[in-house]
Amino acid sequence: MILWREVGQQLRHAVPKTVAGDMCLAPSRRYLSHSTTSWKTGVANSNQWNSSTRRSLQSPWQGWKRTQRCFSATAQAAHGHITPPKPGEEINVTFIDKDETKINIQVAEGDNLLDIAQANDLEMEGACGGSCACSTCHVIVEDPDMFDKMEEPSDDENDMLDLAFGLTETSRLGCQVLMNKELDGLVVRLPSMTRNLQASDFEDKKK
Question: Long-range contacts of range 76-82, CB-CB < 8 Å, 24 or more positions apart?
């Protein structure tokens, strides 16, 4: 009986008191498993039993703290990142801004017009982040022959182009135009205005 009373006292002193959000259940269960094991092994000396009890009370709780997993988050990559072209592999593209100023840029294959424009501080918004869900990266291809060399626009792109200001027969979304060797010398014009309408605006109205 005295032995079990000592166990109760050890529990009251060693197990931490709970506060809001603390997890004391796991340590107490671990203690019971340790103490039961110690009792079954028949430790004769009470001092030895007390020392093993202290270890069983302390180590599970400390071990639980050590096994807590850290949370980390990686910052989202900023839009407008482009890859510098390798020597001899440059592709030329020209933007004509709202002031009729021509900006000639050499880019790498695979970069899209939205990223190129934003990386060079041109006025192209890209409100949806290049996910083909708005029309704010609308551009007008100056040469119809160059327009024909591009891949056909998807249904999603055509839906967003219907919302674009100043839509023409050679309009495209900058985020959907990927540069390649065939588009070397491409010239695109930035419209005088943009409409910041996104697909989500119409989804809210349907609800």
Answer: 79/114, 79/115, 79/118, 79/126, 79/129, 79/130, 80/114, 80/115, 80/118, 80/119, 81/115, 81/119, 82/107, 82/108, 82/111, 82/115, 82/116, 82/119
